[in-house]
C-alpha cells in the first residue's frame, strides 16, 4: 500500500513513519506527481493542491488525510462521488491559535504596539496608550469547539466571563453561558471581546452582517481567526470606518493574500495577521499524532478513524 504526502516534511518525521510502518510505501514530494497520484491509496495533503482532475486520476485512492482543519478548497463533489474517506487534524490548532489570540488581546489591552513604537522613536512616555485590563472582561466566542474551548479555558484564568455561541445552544466546555448562533444579535452587546473561530461552510458564509456590528459595543474588540468569508470585507470596513467597534484583529480574509490596495492595511483600528495564527514548529508533530493512530486503524480494516469528515458539509 502506498501513502503519498503532497508536501515535504522533516526527515526525522519521515523516518518515524517508515520505521513504524515498514509494510507501507511512503512517498514524500513537494507538489503533485502524477505517478504517485495514480498509485496512492492514501494521500496526505494540506487541502489546497488537489483538483477534480487529480481525484479522477487517483484510481486507487481510498482515504485523504488533510493536515489542516479547513477543506473549503478541496474538490468536494468529486471526492464524495467516489465515496473517498476524508479526515483532518481538527483540534491540533487549539494550542498555537489560542496563544496567538491571547497574545493579540494582551498586546492591545496593555498597549504593546504603542510601547514598541515609542521604543523605536526613543520616546519615554509613561502615560501613553491608555492601557486597560483583560481581567473582568466578557468574551463571546463564536464556535466554542476544540479551539474555542481552549480559548475559553485560558481566558477564564484571567477571570474573563465567557459566552459561547454554537449551532445547538448546548453547553460547551469552558463557557459560562452557551446560546444558539441564531440568537447571536441578542448576546453580542454583552461582550467586550468577540472571537470567531468558525470554519467555512455554507451556513457560516457572511454570517456576520452590518447589523451585528451595530449591536456590538463601540469599544469592542472583534477577532476573526476562523475563515475570512464570515463577513463581507466591505461590511467590515464600513463598521470600522463608522467606529461601530473599537478594533479588529484579523487573521483571515475573503481574499488572501490581502490585496495591497485594501483599505484595511491603512486603518489604525485594525491589526492584520497573515493567516498564521496556527503556525508552530510542532504543527507536523501534532498532525502525526492524529495520523499515526488513524493509519494503524486503517491498515487493520477499521474505518472509524479520528476526525472523519462529511466532505460536503465541510466538517
TrEMBL record:
Record-linked InterPro entries: D-isomer_2_OHA_DH_cat_dom, D-isomer_DH_CS, D-isomer_DH_NAD-bd, NAD(P)-bd_dom_sf
Gene3D superfamilies: NAD(P)-binding Rossmann-like Domain
D-isomer specific 2-hydroxyacid dehydrogenase NAD-binding domain sequence ranges: 102-277
CDD domains: 2-Hacid_dh_1 (cd05300)
PROSITE patterns, per database record: D_2_HYDROXYACID_DH_3
Source domain of life: Bacteria
Gene Ontology MF: a single term: NAD binding
Boundaries of every D-isomer specific 2-hydroxyacid dehydrogenase catalytic domain copy: 36-300
Pfam families: 2-Hacid_dh (PF00389), 2-Hacid_dh_C (PF02826)
UniProt keywords, alphabetically: NAD, Oxidoreductase
Family affiliation: Belongs to the D-isomer specific 2-hydroxyacid dehydrogenase family.
Protein name: 3-phosphoglycerate dehydrogenase
Lineage: Bacteria, Bacillati, Bacillota, Bacilli, Bacillales
Amino acid at each position: 500500500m502506498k501513502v503519498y504526502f503532497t508536501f515535504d516534511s522533516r526527515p526525522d518525521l519521515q523516518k518515524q513513519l517508515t520505521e513504524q510502518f515498514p509494510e507501507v510505501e511512503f512517498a514524500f514530494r513537494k507538489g503533485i506527481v502524477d505517478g504517485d497520484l495514480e498509485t496512492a491509496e492514501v494521500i496526505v495533503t494540506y487541502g489546497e493542491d488537489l483538483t477534480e482532475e487529480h481525484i479522477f486520476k487517483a484510481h486507487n485512492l481510498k482515504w485523504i488525510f488533510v493536515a489542516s482543519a479547513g477543506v473549503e478548497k478541496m474538490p468536494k463533489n468529486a471526492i464524495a462521488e467516489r465515496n473517498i474517506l476524508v479526515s483532518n487534524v481538527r483540534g491540533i490548532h487549539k494550542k498555537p491559535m489560542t496563544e496567538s489570540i491571547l497574545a493579540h488581546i494582551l498586546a492591545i489591552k496593555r498597549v504593546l504596539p504603542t510601547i514598541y513604537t515609542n521604543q523605536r522613536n526613543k520616546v519615554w512616555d509613561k502615560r501613553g496608550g491608555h492601557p486597560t485590563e483583560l481581567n473582568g472582561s466578557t468574551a463571546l466566542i463564536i464556535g466554542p469547539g476544540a479551539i474555542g474551548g481552549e480559548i475559553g479555558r485560558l481566558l477564564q484564568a484571567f477571570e474573563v466571563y465567557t459566552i459561547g455561541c454554537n449551532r445547538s445552544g448546548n453547553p460547551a466546555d469552558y463557557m459560562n453561558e452557551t446560546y444558539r448562533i441564531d440568537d447571536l444579535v441578542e448576546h453580542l452587546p454583552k461582550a467586550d471581546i468577540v472571537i470567531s473561530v468558525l470554519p467555512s461552510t455554507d451556513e457560516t458564509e457572511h454570517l456576520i452582517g452590518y447589523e451585528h456590528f451595530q449591536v456590538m459595543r463601540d469599544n469592542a474588540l472583534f477577532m476573526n481567526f476562523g475563515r475570512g468569508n464570515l463577513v463581507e470585507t466591505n461590511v467590515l470596513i464600513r463598521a470600522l470606518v463608522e467606529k461601530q467597534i473599537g478594533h479588529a484583529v484579523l487573521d483571515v480574509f475573503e481574499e488572501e493574500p490581502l490585496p495591497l490596495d485594501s483599505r484595511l492595511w491603512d486603518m489604525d483600528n485594525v491589526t492584520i495577521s497573515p493567516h498564521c495564527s496556527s503556525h508552530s514548529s510542532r504543527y507536523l508533530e501534532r498532525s502525526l499524532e492524529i495520523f499515526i493512530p488513524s493509519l494503524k486503524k486503517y491498515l487493520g480494516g477499521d474505518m472509524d478513524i479520528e476526525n472523519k469528515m462529511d466532505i460536503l458539509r465541510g466538517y
